[in-house]
Write a structure and sequence with these properties.
α2 crosses α5. With about 300 residues, this protein is an alpha/beta fold. It contains eleven helices and twelve strands. The radius of gyration is 24 Å and the shape is elongated. The chain folds into three domains: about 90 residues, Winged helix-like DNA-binding domain superfamily/Winged helix DNA-binding domain (Arc Repressor Mutant, subunit A, Orthogonal Bundle), CATH 1.10.10.10; about 100 residues, 3-Layer(aba) Sandwich (D-Maltodextrin-Binding Protein, domain 2), CATH 3.40.190.10; about 90 residues, D-Maltodextrin-Binding Protein, domain 2.
Length: about 300
Amino acid sequence: MKPSYAQLQSQLGLQDLELVLALHRGRTLAGAAERLKVDTSTVFRAIKRIEKDIGELLFDRSRQGYTATELGRVLASHAERIETQLEEAREAAFHQASEPSGLLRITLTDTLLHAVLLPVLARFTAQHPRIDLELATTNVLVNLSQREADIAIRVTNDPPEHLVGIRLGTMRSAVYAGTDYLAAQPEGKHYGEMDWITLDDSLPDHPSQGWRREHYPQAAPRHKVGNLLAVAGAVVNGLGVGVVPLAVMRDHPQATLLDGPLPELDIGLWVLAHPDTRYLGRMKAMFDFLRTAIELPASCPP
């Protein structure tokens, strides 16, 4: 016999909702335990007790982990709203609207971290000494609705509709070669016939790959690397030619511009967040800072 509605209300507490949310986000007992700073057996016993109290399964178990049922997703959604409201209440209680604080987790690619964010980040930390940063680099857009990160910085011309954000500018790209490499080439040799450095097969659909295949289909890559930052490194160290964002290369003394900027490769740079958390003090502080701090090169220097 299932418990009555009144019994359910008394049995389901804030800690229970926090655990449901942690397991929904973590997908596994270990993932939830890490988020809650407890051991896996505690998570296992707690979720079994909650499901017994409610009389319904909240998660389907499989070899891949724990997947929330419809009811599990509903409870996790309520827990997310409570989490956000608690953070807002803490900010109000401690006057953090004027002095934001707490941990701010940002996800972005290696290329954006080194070429765009790190050069300006010291100014932000100086302005906001009570905000701690956690920077996670990945090519995958993490699930901001599940609070895997607070802010995502990404290049896209089509940002996800369920997120809110601002466009920081346009990332432009060009074809570069290392200065020493170029000097060693026969006079009059076109860059299309030189050694190409491209992204590897983990990024087959990157716009730079399509541009090269369209304009120089005969140019088979000689060297492949895992991200645009590595393409730039290989170029300046004399391995060949490659397509690199202007923001990465900027005024590097060992790089020579061969072609560009290439309008076909223009792409927007966005800072994105979940609508429920966008106006938390530390989130707003980062959005406001990036809006003015990021300056992307629009053209190559003469």
